[in-house]
Amino acid sequence: xxxxxxxxxxxxxxxxxxxxxxxxxxxxxxxxxxxxxxxxxxxxxxxxxxxxxxxxxxxxxxxxxxxxxxxxxxxxxxxxxxxxxxxxxxxxxxxxxxxxxxxxxxxxxxxxxxxxxxxxxxxxxxxxxxxxxxxxxxxxxxxxxxxxxxxxxxxxxxxxxxxxxxxxxxxxxxxxxxxxxxxxxxxxxxxxxxxxxxxxxxxxxxxxxxxxxxxxxxxxxxxxxxxxxxxxxxxxxxxxxxxxxxxxxxxxxxxxxxxxxxxxxxxxxxxxxxxxxxxxxxxxxxxxxxxxxxxxxxxxxxxxxxxxxxxxxxxxxxxxxxxxxxxxxxxxxxxxxxxxxxxxxxxxxxxxxxxxxxxxxxxxxxxxxxxxx
Length: 373
Description:
single chain; 373 residues; mainly alpha; 76% helix
C-alpha cells in the first residue's frame, strides 16, 4: 500500500486520522523510501570504512600479530557485526541491513584469513562454495535486501567456478560440454526467476526481493535466443543433458500464487522448449528459419500471457523476444538467402513496420491491463 492510497481512504471518510497513521506505521511509510535508502547506503559505507580500517591496521602489523590473535579478532568482528545487527534489527532496520552486509563480508574475510594462516591451497571453487553456504540461507530467514544480491551474484560465480575448475573434487567439468554448461545457466536463471515470482506475492520480508526475478528472466531470454535463433550449441552424446533438460519443466511445476494453471501451463511450455528445440534444429535444413519462427511464437505467447494474466512485465518480456527474433531474421535468414543489399533494406523497412505495430499493440495491452487491474 502507498501513502497516497491511505490519504485517499482518509479523504473518503473510510478511515480516521489515527487509523491512517497506524496503517502508515505498519507499512513503514513514514520514513520515505529515498531517506531509507540513503540511510542504508550510508550505514553500509560506514561499516565498509570501519572494516577496511581494521584490515589496514592488521595488515600494517601483520607479522608481529600472533596467529591466535588474528583468528580471535576475526571471529570477534564477525560475531560483533551480527550482534549489532540483532540489536538494531527492530529499531533501525535499514541500518541493520548494512551491518548484516558487513557481517557477510567478515565471513569472507575469515575464510581468506584462515586460508592464509594455515597455508591452505584449496581451489577457488571450494572457498567460494564455503562462503556461499555460510550466507545463502540468511536472506531467506531474515530481511537482507543487500545480502540477497550477494547471494545471487555468488551463486553465478560459484557455478562458473564449478564449470571451469578441473582440480577441485566439486568440479562439474568431467560431466560438462558446451551444451550442458548452457543448460546449467538456464537452470540457475530459472531458479532465481521462480523465486522472484513467488516473492512477488509474498506477504513476508522476501517481498522486497522480487525484483531479482526480472534480472534472472532477462538472462534466461538472452540464453534462450542464442540456442533457439542461432543454434549455437549442439546435442552431443552426454548422459547429463537429458536430466538437465527435464529439470526445467519440473522446476516450473512450482507455480506462484495469483496465476492460474492454464496460463502457467503455457508459460511452462514457452520457457521449457526453446533450449531443446534449438538443440534439435542444429544442423538441420531450414533450422535457422524454423528457429526464428519459434522465437516469434515464444514472444507472441509471452505477450498474450502478459495480457491474460494482467502482468505488464511478462508482456515486455514477449516484446523483447520478438525483437530478438527480428534481429535474427535479418542477420541469419535473409542474408543467407541472398546477398542483395536491396533485400536487406526492404526487410529492414518491413521490420520497422512490424516493430511499430507490435509496440502499438503492446501499449494498448498495457493500457488495458492498468484499467482492468
